[in-house]
Amino acid sequence: MPRALDLPEDELLPLIRAAIREGVFSEAFTESLRNLVAELQGSEPEVPRELTDLDRVQAHSHGLIRSRAGDLLRERANGIWLGVGLAMLWLVPSIEHQAVLFRALWLPR
Question: Would you say 25 and 19 are in contact if contact means Cβ atoms under 8 Å apart?
């Protein structure tokens, strides 16, 4: 019985192909996957090649972009929560003065 996140093979293979092309997996994982497939096919696994300077620069820049995006998200999330908290504090006096309106909006019927 398939689980909720299981994909059929005809959907899984294109997903893995796209992930490899987009650099989602590390070079080490991709190389291990190639070796595994070659081993299962009965051919000799490829000898791991040395990374070129371009490969190293690309890997480094992808790492920087991912870490910077995470930093920006954490910074923005803190600001959003601060804004929500300040908005709620601003509403408190309004709730006390307009209790009938807020009871009508918030209480279940």
Answer: yes
pLDDT digits (tens, 9 = 90+) for 1-11: 555 567 777 78
Residue 60 has pLDDT above 60, yes or no: yes
- Contacts within 8 Å (CB) and 24+ apart, 70-77: none
Q: Both tokens of residue 33?
A: 């996957």
Q: Find out whether 28 and 60 touch, Cβ atoms under 8 Å.
A: no
**pTM of the entire predicted model:** 0.34
Domain residue spans in the chain? 8-49
CA-CA-CA-CA torsion sign (98, 102, 103, 109): positive
Query: If DSSP states are collapsed to H, E and C, what string results for 1-36?
Result: CCCCCCCCHHHHHHHHHHHHHCCCCCHHHHHHHHHH
